[in-house]
Write a structure and sequence with these properties.
With 505 residues, the chain is mostly helical. It folds into three domains: 97-125, no CATH class; 166-305, no CATH class; 307-500, no CATH class. It has helices at 37-50, 99-104, 116-121, 136-141, 167-180, 189-199, 204-219, 226-246, 254-271, 278-291, 301-305, 307-317, 328-341, 348-366, 368-380, 387-393, 399-414, 416-419, 429-445, 455-464; strands spanning 471-474, 477-480, 483-485, 497-500. A four-stranded antiparallel β-sheet has the order 3-2-1-4, with no helix packed on it. A hairpin with a 2-residue loop joins strand 1 and strand 2. Helix 7 (204-219) runs parallel beside helix 9 (254-271) and helix 14 (348-366) runs antiparallel to helix 15 (368-380). One of its GO terms (molecular function) is DNA-binding transcription factor activity, RNA polymerase II-specific.
Length: 505
């Protein structure tokens, strides 16, 4: 998945009801979810009450619970184990009685407004006032010298029960940091390698999305990768479920907002590694755009809020891209195919999407920079339509929309030499093989009489995409399939960047 998004977050798309803040249930009589802090505390208390202390067996926990048989029949005094102190009887003296009873050194009944003793003596009954930081009801329920530990309320983002990850998960996490993290925002790798990992442990959906993307990415280049694909799906399902739960309430911090957006990004990029991931890709892409209403302090603020700034990052990378060859013959075929497809577009959504694709192809002749800007508009499209329009657009039975998506996939391949500047050191050949599968799957689902409108996309991606994507040389060093190699290049322009076509036969 490439491009960036600038659309605002439409409030009508966000209809969930915000539940109240969750609190820790420290009352074992009340229901609570498994693994909550109260459950752990109750288990600890139970284990202490059933365990031995100081070498005393459970039957000896109460030193005076047994009476030894007296040697003298006349003696009725029970003997106790030597060396064990006689337990002191609990204090029954009133600690919150009135001043009169305290002064008279008698037990106060603590009845209000006047205790029984003062009422009988017909004297004034006055109780001490509670301190400024004390609650009278809490004082009546809890002794002053209590052994109950008051726990601070945890941060909302922290989990009460930590998730245990395996060594395989740790390997996937390392692969994410080194090879699999999203290529957007352009030139902001530190967001994924430093900032997001620093608090990913606080948001399980973020960690799960990282592992899901890593497993899918690794499965594309690993033989016999069935286990990796299973792990990818497992992590993805958990990430989506936990993310849906988190979205039921507004984020409470900048970190939480960034964690949600990053999870959407990871799941969107993972979709491009899945053979049947086209619908998932469009859905998660829409989620990114709808979630993209981030504050200025967000790590992604410049990416989603400042279109010119994001385009500027790409402009710096392909300063010489205006002289880059973008296969004129392929542009001609794309323009002809889109012209034929125009007659099938009947709704406003279909005509608008068709217009974005046409603009992208037309700008490819003279200005790859403008072609890339139009490419971004195509990506933004799914977030700028209503929910009902989006659901109708992604239906497999919507033949016109399916043909438009097939042309979008082929246009993605057509502009590969421009898009590669988003991440110049990444090998994306496996991802382009997935795009071939998407295009072929669309063609298989079309009625036979409609396949003539899909001829150019299928033929083009079948011819070009399996050969791989161009590698990039920066300052005299080639980057092919993620490794540095030396050699001559076929240059498409002067300046700081030279593009070499590398075919992966």
């Amino acid at each position: 998945m490439y491009g960036f998004w600038t659309a605002p977050f439409p409030p009508d798309q966000y209809t969930s009801t915000w539940p109240g803040e969750e609190t820790i249930n420290t009352n074992p009589s009340k229901s609570h979810s498994p693994g909550t802090l109260s459950e752990i505390l109750d288990a600890d208390i139970a284990s202490v009450s059933n365990s031995s202390y100081g070498g005393i067996s459970p039957s000896q926990q109460t030193p005076y619970s047994r009476e030894e048989k007296p040697t003298d029949c006349s003696s009725q005094i029970p003997s106790r184990p030597r060396g064990k102190p006689i337990p002191r009887k609990g204090h029954t003296k009133s600690r919150k009685g009135c001043f009169s009873c305290k002064r008279r050194k008698i037990k106060c009944q603590e009845t209000r407004p006047c205790c029984t003793n003062c009422k009988k003596a017909e004297i004034s009954c006055e109780y001490p006032k509670p301190g400024p930081f004390q609650n009278q009801s809490q004082q009546q329920q809890q002794p002053k010298e209590s052994n109950i530990i008051s726990l601070p309320s945890p941060r909302p983002s922290l989990q009460s029960t930590p998730t245990i990850f395996s060594m395989t998960d740790m390997k996937l996490f390392h692969h994410f940091l080194s090879h699999a993290y999203p290529t957007l925002p352009v030139g902001a790798d530190a967001i994924w390698t430093l900032q997001m990992p620093s608090f990913a442990h606080e948001y399980e959906y973020l960690m799960r999305s990282m592992l899901a993307l890593s497993a899918s990415n690794l499965s594309l280049t690993t033989p016999h990768s069935r286990d990796l694909r299973n792990q990818a799906i497992t992590h993805r399902v958990k990430a989506v479920r936990l993310l849906n739960q988190a979205l039921c309430r507004p984020s409470t911090s900048r970190e939480e907002g960034d964690a949600r957006f990053a999870a959407f990004m990871n799941l969107t990029f993972q979709s491009t590694c899945m053979e049947d991931g086209l619908i998932d890709f469009l859905t998660m892409l829409r989620g990114c755009i709808l979630q993209g209403d981030l504050g200025e302090t967000s790590a992604f603020a410049g990416f989603v809020n400042d279109k010119d700034r994001t385009l500027g990052s790409m402009i710096e990378r392909f300063e010489v891209a205006d002289t880059l060859d973008v296969e004129v013959e392929a542009l001609n075929e794309a323009a002809k195919s889109l012209l034929k497809l125009e007659e099938l577009c009947t709704t406003d959504v279909e005509r608008l999407y068709h217009g974005h694709l046409t603009d992208m192809v037309q700008n490819g002749y003279a200005s790859p920079r403008q072609a890339y800007a139009c490419f971004v508009q195509v990506y933004n499209f799914v977030g700028n339509i209503t929910h009902s329009q989006f659901q109708s657009f992604i239906q497999p039975t919507n033949s016109c929309a399916q043909l438009l998506l097939s042309h979008f996939i082929a246009s993605h391949v057509l502009l590969r030499n421009v898009i590669t500047f988003e991440s110049m050191e990444r090998d994306t050949s496996a991802m382009y093989a997935i795009l071939v599968g998407w295009c072929k799957s669309i063609d298989d689902g079309l009625d036979p009489f409609l396949r003539k409108f899909n001829r150019w996309p299928v033929e083009y991606v079948m011819e070009v995409a399996p050969r791989g994507m161009g590698a990039v040389q920066v300052e005299g060093v080639n980057f092919i399939r993620g490794r540095r190699v030396e050699g001559d290049n076929r240059s498409f322009g002067g300046g700081g960047y030279v593009v070499e076509k590398f075919f992966n036969n």
